[in-house]
From TrEMBL:
Source species of the chain: Cohnella herbarum
One Pfam family cited in the UniProt record for this chain: DUF2071
Gene3D superfamilies, alphabetized: Acetoacetate decarboxylase-like
SUPFAM superfamilies: Acetoacetate decarboxylase-like (SSF160104)
PANTHER family xref list: DUF2071 DOMAIN-CONTAINING PROTEIN, DUF2071 FAMILY PROTEIN
Taxonomic lineage from the root: Bacteria, Bacillati, Bacillota, Bacilli, Bacillales
Protein name: DUF2071 domain-containing protein
Length: 242
């Protein structure tokens, strides 16, 4: 897989896991920096675009999940997921920071929590492909939290390449994620081809994915993008020394 577009070199260690992401909706809302800053662990810095912070809700499907040199993991190689994220940076390596990741497979949820210190939750998710329009319903299980998402979305343009410096590039071209465990910060390196984005339309009927944090999304419509398919390689966690 090519890596010349990546802002810094790939790790010298071999990648650990491969995944394929399908039918992603990127729904992003602008959020005031002061509303997000309390949720970002130090020493991570909240990343902003032209002074504006952003929060994203991203429903999609995953498949082909496998460890290096091994076939797809039985019973956990395919499931739906929805995540809530914002953008952070440290050591000049901008990346993704997750508020939550809801997925349909309990074993995958427990494994990701243990291996990557990510805030995964078990959820009931239904995804229906209605001739290229996707109906997506998610409800978190077992926590008593009102974490719901219900909407339909579809692409409305041909795929295009983003331009460096543009907002759509800034929101999507991220090549690491960050997680925390106690006062320790970890980075997970990621490699994929540049995102083949499409403009999108969506009707979001219910979205309380940020309610548990007391974060109210703006009333205005989100910025929407769609991507059909992307193969992704991930490495193991490395602690960020600070």
């Amino acid at each position: 897989m090519r890596s010349d577009h990546r802002p810094w070199p790939v790790p010298s260690k071999p990648w650990r896991m491969k995944q394929i992401w399908h039918n992603l909706l990127f729904a992003h809302w602008p959020i005031a920096v002061e509303k997000l800053r309390p949720f970002i662990p130090s020493p991570l810095k909240l990343d902003v675009h032209e002074g504006q912070a952003w929060i994203g809700v991203i429903p999609f499907r995953m498949s082909g999940i496998r460890l290096r040199y091994l076939p797809p993991i039985p019973l956990t190689s395919k499931f739906a997921e929805i995540n809530v994220r914002t953008y952070v940076t440290i050591d000049d390596k901008p990346g993704v920071y997750f508020f939550s990741l809801d997925a349909t497979h309990l074993l995958a949820v427990k494994g990701a929590k243990a291996l990557y210190h990510l805030p995964y939750y078990w959820a009931d998710i239904k995804v229906n492909d209605l001739n290229g329009t996707f109906m997506y319903e998610s409800k978190r299980r077992g926590t008593g939290e009102n974490a719901l998402f219900h909407g339909i979305y579809k692409p409305v343009s041909t795929p295009y390449a983003t331009q460096k410096g543009a907002l759509d590039h800034w929101l999507t071209e991220r090549y690491c994620l960050y997680s925390s465990y106690g006062d320790r910060i970890f980075r997970c390196e990621i490699l994929h081809h540049p995102w083949p984005l499409q403009h999108a339309e969506a009707e979001i009927y219910a979205n309380t994915m940020t309610a548990g944090y007391g974060i109210q999304l703006p009333a205005g419509p989100p910025i929407l993008h769609y991507s059909e398919r992307l193969e992704v390689l991930t490495w193991g966690l490395e602690e960020v020394k600070h």
